[in-house]
Amino acid sequence: MRITSARDLGLAVRQGRQDRGQTQAELAAAAGVSRRWLSDLEAGKATAEFGLILRTLDALGIGLDALPVDPVPGGIDLDALLGDTGSERG
Question: Both ends of the chain: CA-CA distance in Å?
Fold first, then answer.
């Protein structure tokens, strides 16, 4: 699953929890977070602490990979458009 927002992450956590048949309280206890915090994460709260997110993903058995993002098809390459030579302008 590609995650591009806090909302996407929350949906992935919720789906993982539901796939395992866990309640929020059960997952929160396994991850060492409060049920309220987990509820906020699943709702897409953008300010959730990253360390707690990692603990929650670990409790779900979900790994996190950081991969380069391909440019959007049809997107604009500003370097090519502006003829960037690698030198600073200004």
Answer: 41
